[in-house]
Amino acid sequence: MKLVSAGQLCNGCPARVTTYILARRARFGSSRPWPVAVPGCPWACRVRGVSVVNVLSLGSSSGVVWGRVPITAPAGAATGVTSRADAHSQMRRYAQTGPTAKLSSAPMTTMWGAPLHRRWRGSRLRDPRQAKFLTLASLKWVLANRAYTPWYLVRYWRLLRFKLANPHIITRGMVFLGKGVEIHATPELAQLEIGRWVHIGDKNTIRAHEGSLRFGDKVVLGRDNVINTYLDIEIGDSVLMADWCYICDFDHRMDDITLPIKDQGIIKSPVRIGPDTWIGVKVSVLRGTTIGRGCVLGSHAVVRGAIPDYSIAVGAPAKVVKNRQLSWEASAAQRAELAAALADIERKKAAR
Fold first, then answer.
1. Is residue 46 in a domain?
2. If you count Cβ atoms within 10 Å of the first and of the last residue's Cβ in the chain, which end, N or C, has fewer?
3. What is the DSSP letter of 257?
4. pLDDT digits 0-9 by tens, 287-307
5. Are the C-beta atoms of residues 186 and 206 closer than 8 Å to each other?
């Protein structure tokens, strides 16, 4: 396998190769791929049908270049990087030209494979928001509530194992984890904060690739839910989420029909879910969504945009069909009559 210059790769020829410049320390874990628009290469439009080989150019800590090039270069083509020092300098130069991620559009990143030492290096154990579990108050709570049954002990063990593997994730209190839960946050790129008394059911997948993901207190997730974050997602206190729901704050770009969708980057917009919201089964919450306080989202709803406070929304796309606050105010007289009738019944019972 031979080293080649990134300048020899192009995005225009039939044997087109996608070039990525990965972020610092990409070799050891999480990475930020930059789709780079490089100049036309010597092989452009002259290698139809020519086989290609995978090429990996290892640079310094500033980046790594992946690509695919023809096995046989045409006459007059450069033979590639002649030395490791040249490869390092070229990679440094291309790492500086990578576009910075914007709020509206950016390439995708992933956190898969981030080693433990990187997580501990970005540890937030001294963050004042981190809960301290081995305290006298927590011990008193365990004894007072008899929270030492096998059900609790299993969840204490799961939380301990999770905290040891993810010290960079903030937990502001007790978190009850089900079986098969996957929680990932890219060290140094993403911030994941979980509130107090949060229940996360079996087989939930929570990924904070970049940006911030925040759970309020007493949030309850069912099972098999997926949450993907690239910018900012905030889930308020006491949110109830059923099963098989999906929440994300990004979309894939698809404007250019000549370029694979996976290579066009993503568009990101924040998502806000207000407190005391009930999310039904198989609801999808898309980017740019703001859900108010006390809302109810019907099963299979596809939510995009703004949902006012105390609204009930159903359908795909989701539409508001009822307002809980207006219904509550309209039924005030009926509730007063019912309360008076109950009080009269109690008075008659006491008079006997």
1. yes
2. C
3. T
4. 999 999 999 999 999 999 999
5. no
